[in-house]
Each structure stands twice: as structure tokens, then as C-alpha cells.
Amino acid sequence: MAGTPPKDRIRDLRDAIRHHEERYYIHNAPEISDEQFDRLLHELERIEAEHPELVTGDSPTQRVAGRPVEGFATVEHRTQMLSLDNTYSDDELRAFDERVRKGAGVGGDPIAYVAEIKIDGLSIALTYDEGRLVRGATRGDGVRGEDVTANVRTIRAIPLALRSGPPGPIEVRGEVYLSRASFTRMNREREESGEPLFANPRNAAAGTMRNLAPALVASRGLSAFVYQLVGDGARAMPPTHSDALAAMQSWGLPVEPHWQRLDGIDKVVAFCRSWAEKRRTLEFGTDGVVIKVDDLALRERLGATAKCPRWATAFKFPPEQAHTKLLRIDVNVGRTGANTPYAVLDPVLLAGSTISMATLHNAEDIARKDLREGDTVVIEKGGDVIPKVVAPVLSLRPPDSKPWEMPTTCKACASTLTREDDEVIWRCVNESCPAKLRRGLLHFAGRTAMNIEGLGESLVEQLVEKAIVGDYADLYRLTEATLARLDRMAEKSASNLVAEIEKSKTSDLSRLIYALGIRHVGEKAAATLARHFRTMQGVLKAPIEALQSVREVGPVVARSVRMFADEPRNRRLIDRLEKAGVNMTTSLPKPAEEPGPLAGKTFVLTGTLSAMTREQAIEAIERLGARVTGSVTKKTSYVVAGAEAGSKLEKARQLGIETLDEAALRALIIKQHA
Ligand SMILES: [Zn+2]
After folding, report:
1. What is the per-residue DSSP string for 89-139?
2. How far is the CA of 614 from the centre of ligand 1 (A)?
3. Contacts made by residues 482-490, CB under 8 angstroms, sequence distance 24+
4. Which of 350, 282, 355 is nearest to 318 (CA)?
5. How many Å lie between the centroid of ligand 1 and the Cα of residue 137?
6. C-alpha closest to that of 133 among 107, 118, 115, 154
7. Which of 28, 248, 617, 618 suits a disulfide with 253, CB 3.0-4.6 Å?
8. 3-state SS assignment for residue 365
9. Phi first, then psi: what are they for 456, rounded to 5°?
10. CA distance 440 to 429
């Protein structure tokens, strides 16, 4: 767009990106390809990089602040976030309607309700001021929640700026959720990195929202719906809930589209029945329908009990269950050596899919439920994606059945299984267990680990089976001649693979640590350890206290790293990798000791910034090596005063400390970066 002033082009791009985000993330009906969308975003990023003075907090490029937050501040909700009473049957729904009609004093007249699909996620409250997202908070205990604004900003279904709407502050409430597809993808990745799996999308969404790294939150693909506009008394609210939903929709907020306004409880019952059947057609988890009185004036009259409003109820769907035969209990061996039992079932249709396997969690769970091979069992699909076995049908139990016993040896290598005191999982600790080795090699070669392209499943299978590779270090002894003798291995691909393996030697220490598959050490923890300890020996020799004292390394990770390092076999493996020429150092910057151009300077922020968030300002200042502190002292180098700066600015003047307004701060940042 030669000739267009950058300011105008930025405005057009932002409008276009917001429009397409809404099409994609809210309406699920994109008008352009992902590639075209990325091109718009990249153009905007480029122009904003050239004109940093034109960047504003509500630009679509500013979703991820990038900087982990230290913790969540507690915030008070404008009005209490109530929970809902549950109903489980048509009769209970009708009883609810009776109570509403009695409270309303309308006799036999039907009440107008709004029925909405109940989203199985995490409740949140969003505040917009002058059409801009200024705060996102979790429900917490209903009175006080946690300020998760930085994380909420990464959710692309939530607009950073409203298309239209009231100018003053408004609060909308809704639910953050993870789609089934994102949930499946996330658990697959966690399984590969040896991290514990989330039980269901709701737990995954809640766990993600409480993560302190917005960049990680952004990568998880959370989405959101809003379902309530909160009045503050001062402003005229739409007279009905259905008007409020329509209004929120028109402002560009994500409203779940299947809601209906229904006259009388009969239609509500029919709506609930119909969605109990169709619930699996939705791309998100749902466990019921929320029914609300539409007329807000009537809601006022009905009021609330201490915990629940009298004008709404949640109808819970019955769990989807089926009966089938438990043919046998089998065991699967994972990368960490976990021997996990699972149920092999007589295939049965449940909730639209054929089920032939179900999780059994662990031996204790099987014993508690007394599940036996040959039993007829009840299986259930709840919020979880993987069906579970609920209970045996004792009346149908064959007379000769015996309680199931967990094997004492590994399914793959027959080594004796062990378990830690506080764990229910039995593990194979044989380092050369073929099942562990196979999974481990695939992980080691993975794209985010050592990135050895061409080392696929069938090849790994052969290398392990023919005892050519007994551990990760053996990979570095592979020759073209050895590889060329394997099935489906052409000369060309053998030489390519050898080159790939050679190339992997230069991988950064962070990748190597992750590739080793140390329990609980995912990509992020591996990078943190590398940045902090610099060399493999540094990590291996670090006492547990030193490991624990690293920010973002918890006691679980620290203990796991220590256990790994204390195992002589692992030490030998590392030695052999080192001798093979694998890089044992990192080139990642050391977190605290990068001397920036402003090293040694101290900043204090006060008042409200307009073009950037407080977090962004802190990040920018810290990137330049300076520190940001809370109170003004003689040692403070600069006080940055935004709008409505108070006593801190006063103090700075008294002490003769240089003050910067927002523009001056921005100029300083730009100058130092140049
Ligand atoms: Zn084994």
C-alpha cells in the first residue's frame, strides 16, 4: 500500500484482523485462509515495528505480553458470582417452574425463559472500559477471584476491543473452555513429554488459566463464550436477558449461538431432551443446559438465596452409559516405564462412537471397583474424552471369575515392576526395556527435542528389535552401511539420516535435557535448567536446593532431576553422548546477568499508562537491564508517571529524581533498542 500513511494502514489492518478473528474464533466460519490471515498479521507486526509509537495495547499484535507474571493479584467482583442450583429430571425442572411462577404471582401464565448450552469450562469475568478489555478475573470463591488479564488477552475469541457498545465500564461473564480437539492435542503432547495428563477439558482449561506464562497459555488454544451482562445500576440495562445476549453478540463478544427464548417449561424440557441427545455434535464439552428467566425485572423480584439465584437453574444431562463385556485387562508400557492397565471391551456404541477400549487408571482402582475379566461392566463417557469403566454388573458375573491381579513384571521386558510410596503407578526401571527404549528414542528424536528427521516408528522398531541401538548414545554410532541393511531403507535415506543424526549433535543443551525424557521435565523446564546452569555437568551436579531455588522449577522437577543424575547408568549415558560429540552447553542467554544498556538503573512506575500495559512497560524496561521497584527512594533512577500519578510522583519531585512521562519512556526504550 505505497502512499498510505502508516497510521491509516495500521487502522485498516487492525479492523481486518479483528473481523477475521471474529469470523474464525467466534463464528467458526473463516472467510480467508490461515495463510492470508497470517499475512495480515505479519504486515501489521512489520509496520508496528517500524513505528513503535503507533503500537497500542488493544492491537491484535499485543495479545501475548510474553513476560511470565509472578503471581495473580486478588480482585473483588463487582457483584457476587453466584453458582447455580442443579436439576436432574423433567420433574425437577417443572418444580423449578412452579417456584418461579409462584414467586412471580402469574398463576397459570407461561414464563419466558432463555435456555443456553452449559459450557464445561472455567468461569471468568471480563471488564471493558471505553470498549477496551481492561481486566479478566477468575470466579474464585464468587466474591474474590484472581486477576488473569494477561492470560485472558491471549484468547483470540475474546476481543481486546469491542466493535461497538457502551462507552463506560461494563462487565461480562462467561466461560473459558478448551475444545475437544485442542484437549486431545494437548494431552498427546503431554504424554510424549512424560507429563501427567489432564483428566478432562475442564481441568485442562482451569490448569492453563492458572499458568503464569501467557505465551504458554496462548499456545494451548483456549476459547471462550460469554453469557451474562452485569448491570451496575447506573446504566440502563436491556430489559431482558435475550436482548442482552443479542447486544453482546452485536458488540463482537462470543455468545454461544444455540441459545433460545422459550415460552413455558414444556418447551424448556423439550430443549433439554434434544440437547442431551445432540451434545456430542458440539466441539466443546457440555454437561447440561442453563435455564434463566428472561425478564430482568422479574429476576429482581425473585432474588437469590445465599448461594444461588432463584431465577435460574442448571439442568444436568444424564451421563452417557452403556453395558458391555470386559474381555480382558491388558497393560500398556509408556516411555517412563509406567505399566498401565486398560480394558479391552466387546465393541459397543456409546455417544456416537464405537468403544473397544477404556482406561482403568491403575491397579488400585481396579481392585477398589473389583473389576474382573469376563464381567459385564458399565462404561461411561462423562466430561472425559476417554471412556471409563464405572462398575461391574455383579448379577451377571460368571461363577468362576477371579479378582484381577496386577502383573509383577513388565509387560515388555519381564523386569520386576516397582513403585514409589506415594504413587499408584507401577513402573519398569529397566533402562534397556524395549518398550521404554522405543518410546524414548522417538521422543529423543522428536522435533522439539534433538530433531532427527527420518527416525520414524518402523525404523526405531527395527533398531531396538535387532539390538542395534540399546540407548540414545548408540544412535551416534549408526553408519550408512548398518542402516542400509534394514528394511525399507534406501541408500539415500540412510545417508540423509546419518547426516541428520550428525547435525543433532550441535543441538542446544536445552533440547538435550528435554530429549533425555527426565520425568516431569518438559520443554519449558528444560530450557529454564539450561539457562540457569549453563552446562550438563552444571545441571547434574546441582544440589537439590540449588535446583529448587531456580524460578519456575518446583520441588517435583527438582527431585526428578536429582534422581536422574544420581543414577550411575544415566551418568554413563551422558558420558557416552559427550564422547560422541553431542553438545553439552547452551547458548541461551543467562536470565539475570545480561547486562543491558540500562543495567544498574532503577525505575518506579506510577499512574496509568495508555499506549502500553504496565506489564509491557516492565518487560521493556527489564529487557534493557534495569530493575523496576515499587517505592521511590534516593536510589531510584527514574520515576515513570502515567495519568493520575499520585504520591510517588510527589516524592520523586521532593527527592529531585528525574521523572518521565509515557512518551519520554517510549522514546528512551526506542533509543536504547536502536
Ligand atoms: Zn520393561
Report:
1. SHHHHHHHHHHHHHHHT-TTPPPEEEEEEEE-SEEEEEEEETTEEEEEEE-
2. 52
3. 486/459, 486/462, 487/458, 487/462, 488/458, 489/459
4. 350
5. 46
6. 154
7. 248
8. helix
9. -95, -175
10. 13
Going edge to edge, which strands form the sheet with 122-129? 132-138, 122-129, 170-178, 222-230
Active site residue 503: no
Closest by Cα among 553, 539, 653, 674 to 604:
653
Domains of the chain listed by start with CATH number: 6-62 (1.10.287.610), 86-316 (3.30.470.30), 320-396 (2.40.50.140), 434-504 (1.10.150.20), 509-579 (1.10.150.20), 602-673 (3.40.50.10190)
CB of 345 closer than 8 Å to CB of 379: yes
> β-pairing, 222-230 with 132-138?
unpaired
Q: Alpha-carbon distance 486 to 44, whole Å?
A: 50
CA 426 to ligand 1 centroid distance, Å: 11
CB 503 within 8 A of CB 518: no
Is 80 buried (19+), middle (13-18) or exposed (0-12) by CB count in 10 A?
middle
Ligand 1 center–CA 508 separation, angstroms: 30
Name the pLDDT band for 452 (thresholds 50, 70, 90).
Answer: very high
Cα-to-centroid distance, 410 and ligand 1 (Å): 5
Distance 389 CA to ligand 1 centre (A): 26
Q: Which of 7, 102, 118, 267 is labelled catalytic? A: 118
Q: At what angle do helices 457-465 and 434-444 cross, to 10 degrees?
A: 140
C-alpha distances in Å from residue 469, one per residue of 430, 460, 476, 507:
15, 9, 10, 20
Mean of pLDDT over the chain? 86
Q: What is the pLDDT of residues 378-389, one digit of tens each?
A: 998 765 567 889
Question: Per-residue pLDDT tens for 561-613?
Answer: 999 999 888 999 999 999 999 999 999 887 755 456 777 788 998 888 877 77
Q: How far apart are CA 662 and CA 674, in angstroms?
A: 18
Residue 276: which of 117, 161, 421, 123 has the closest Cα? 117
CA of 411 to the centre of ligand 1 (A): 6
Say how many residues make up the chain: 674
Q: Which three cell numbers stand for residue 411?
A: 509387560
Distance (Å) from CA 334 to ligand 1 centroid: 9
